Automatic annotation (TrEMBL):
It comes from Rhizoctonia solani. The keyword Iron-sulfur does not apply. Belongs to the short-chain dehydrogenases/reductases (SDR) family. This is Short chain dehydrogenase. It holds the Pfam family adh_short. InterPro entries: NAD(P)-bd_dom_sf, SDR_fam, SDR_oxidoreductase. PANTHER family: SHORT CHAIN DEHYDROGENASE (PTHR43976), SHORT-CHAIN DEHYDROGENASE_REDUCTASE FAMILY PROTEIN (PTHR43976:SF16). One of its GO terms (molecular function) is oxidoreductase activity.
Length: 257
């Protein structure tokens, strides 16, 4: 699509193929200090003279029941998945505000809306960044900055490979074995059989944030699910919420003066 790209990773060797395709690459760890991330933003802006779009895509899951995942493991996941998004975004916002243009994409997950056994902590981080995205859009839209939050379905990536991205809680509590077994079963079924093409996923995200292609002439949504497996769970979740609210409406409405 003719875009100039700056790709980042903690281990730059993992994105050498992107560099060979013509992108600029930078070593970045989103858990770095806010001050260092501001330096990263300055360097990135200097690469091509400006940055038009920021894609917040860093994140990883930690498998385990809530009791199994330690305070430190929880903090580490939130540091990458939530605080990383906040600090990287804050680093680029002055540039976007100054230009009164630009776009920010926050990659979330359908697990922010739908419970998956064994990764509640991960789901909590994605629910957090989704709300951050919704609030950010309201805060900066009047400044000419577009914000899009994407709840991804399951795409053919390395997300389910334990040796590359998925971490597991160090503590194992036998009572929670059924929950972890359920996640392992789902992971084994999906690994290699992911229903969505990441290239098409990237294309759709670009089209929506740039209002081109299939999204030409359309307003950038606040938050959108993406993936052939993402629509039905969201609709079912909405139905469940409505059913629960209606079923408990007498209690819900019972506290007014």
């Amino acid at each position: 699509m003719g875009q100039k790209v700056i790709a980042t990773a903690r281990n730059i060797d993992r994105i050498r193929d992107i560099e060979q395709a013509g992108a600029a690459v930078m070593t970045v760890d989103v858990t770095w200090s806010p001050e260092k991330l501001k330096e990263v933003a300055t360097s990135a802006i200097g690469t091509y003279g400006r940055v038009d779009y920021l894609i917040n895509n860093a994140g990883y899951p930690c498998q385990g029941a809530i009791e199994e995942v330690s305070h430190q493991e929880t903090y580490d996941v939130f540091s990458t998945n939530v605080f990383g998004v906040l600090n990287v975004t804050r680093s680029f916002l002055p540039h976007f505000r100054e230009r009164r243009s630009g776009g920010i994409v926050i990659i979330s997950s359908i697990s922010s809306r739908q419970y998956f056994p064994g990764i509640t902590i991960y789901s909590a981080t994605k629910a957090a960044v989704s709300m951050i995205g919704e609030g950010l859009k309201d805060e900066v839209e009047a400044l000419g900055i577009k914000v899009l939050t994407v709840d991804l379905g399951v795409f053919k990536t390395s997300a389910f490979k334990r040796d590359t991205n998925l971490k597991k809680a160090a503590q194992v509590i036998p009572d929670y074995k059924p929950i972890n077994d359920r996640y392992d079963e789902i992971r084994e079924i999906l690994m290699g059989n992911e229903p969505n093409d990441p290239k098409l996923g990237v294309l759709r995200i670009i089209e929506v944030i740039t209002q081109s292609g299939m999204a030409a002439g359309r307003v950038v949504p606040v938050r959108i699910p993406l993936g052939k497996d993402a629509k039905e769970p969201l609709i079912n979740n909405c139905h469940d919420i409505i059913e629960e609210v209606e079923g408990w409406s007498n209690i819900i409405s019972s506290t007014g003066y």
